[in-house]
Structures are given as structure tokens and as C-alpha cells.
Design goal:
single chain, Methane Monooxygenase Hydroxylase, Chain G, domain 1, 3 helices
Amino acid sequence: MPNIKSAIKRVDVTSKKTLENKMIKSQIATMSKKVKTLVANGEVESAKNLLPEVIALIDSACSKGVLHANNAARKVSKLTVLVNSAN
């Protein structure tokens, strides 16, 4: 545990940010899994309706620095291809 006041604050801030980032990543994973499940069950229209929400969530995480830009682009691309190829 750090003794210096600024280092103590850094530990607190880092732990809060880590929890926020983990929450956002978990939300992205959950929504992506919902889209994949809908496609697997043949509910393509529902997946198409949910896809823009997932893409917005991924773009938001990218702009906040939670995801790297290439990682976000890859996730969006894979989901889009999955939904489009399900037709």
C-alpha cells in the first residue's frame, strides 16, 4: 500500500476506473452474445434491430478508451457480417 498521498489517490482512481471499464466490457460481451444467440435461433429481424445498439455501445467504449480502435472495429465487423450472412 502506498504511503504518499498522491499515490494513494492514484490507487483509488485506478480501482474505480477498472470497475467502470470492466462493466462496459461486460455489457458489450452480453449484448454481442444476445445478437449471436438471436442469429443462431433464426431471429434475424430481432438481431438486426439490436445490432445498432451494440455498435453504438462499442463505439462509445472506443471513444472512452476502454477498447482500442482496431479491437472495436473488429467486433463491429464480425457482428455485422454475422447478421448480414444470416439472411
